[in-house]
Amino acid sequence: MLITRPSPAGDNLVKQLINLGKEAWHLPLIHCYPSKELSLLIKKLNLLSNEDLVFIISQNAINYAHQWLSISRLFWPSKLKYYSIGRSSGLLMNKLTGLSVNFPKNGESSENLLLLPTLTNIHGKRALILQGKNGRKKLGNVLKKRGVKVEYCECYYRKQINYNGEEQGNRMIKLGINTLVVTSGEMLKQLYYLLPKNHRKSWLICCKLIVVSNRLAYIAKRLGWKDIVMAKTANNKDLIKLLLNI
Question: Which has the closest alpha carbon to 97: 128, 57, 65?
Fold first, then answer.
């Protein structure tokens, strides 16, 4: 199977799968870098008052934000309420800071997060959303409709890794890869258009595709995939549980 998610999560997933007796290879499609906007993080946190909200969109967001605060020798304000899109980012935030983090128990999406009862009566609050460059705006838009003043902080940005498509296609076919793990629409499209047309039709879309959201499954169907399996979340633990049984 081929794991496309970036390091370090992708590396860790491959290592765990190999240790469990599975054949797995890593082809990271993007690399993440800290954003210049991190320099505004402290100022934006200081604008928040008691019981205001901080939202963590991904593990990368919390990793880069926490790293910035640590370098500045500052701590996350304990007076705020912290939320994360999913369990993995919430547990990471808790591990790094010791703070309590709220997250949906079922699913890892803005839709699931917005169903939390504590986010229903929040008119007049301020919110800071920690995300990557060009992050989806649905969370912020719904919060604004609920009367929240929303600010964003871009904590990191992604850059595509350039590969020789024909060379990689030949290598993956030779390895006998028949299962792909892709955790974002951006990476799925990148993988699809990376490969020459003959590899797409004869091999790529014939592989079993593991995705982590309905949105991603929809994109895959539009590109031509038929054998699509939905993982519970993008967390490595859930992915391993699924991959060991296919």
Answer: 65
Q: Which residues pair with 31 in a beta bridge?
A: 159
Report all structural domains of the chain as residue ranges with CATH numbers, in order of start: 2-29+162-243 (3.40.50.10090), 33-159 (3.40.50.10090)
Q: List strands edge to edge, sheet with 101-102.
A: 30-34, 149-160, 126-132, 53-56, 81-84, 101-102
Instruction: Tell me the pTM.
Output: 0.82
In this structure, are residues 122 and 147 in contact, taking their beta carbons and an 8 Å threshold?
yes
Helix H or strand E segment including 195: none
pLDDT digits (tens, 9 = 90+) for 39-67: 999 999 999 999 999 999 988 999 999 99
Model confidence band, residue 14 (pLDDT cutoffs 50, 70, 90): very high
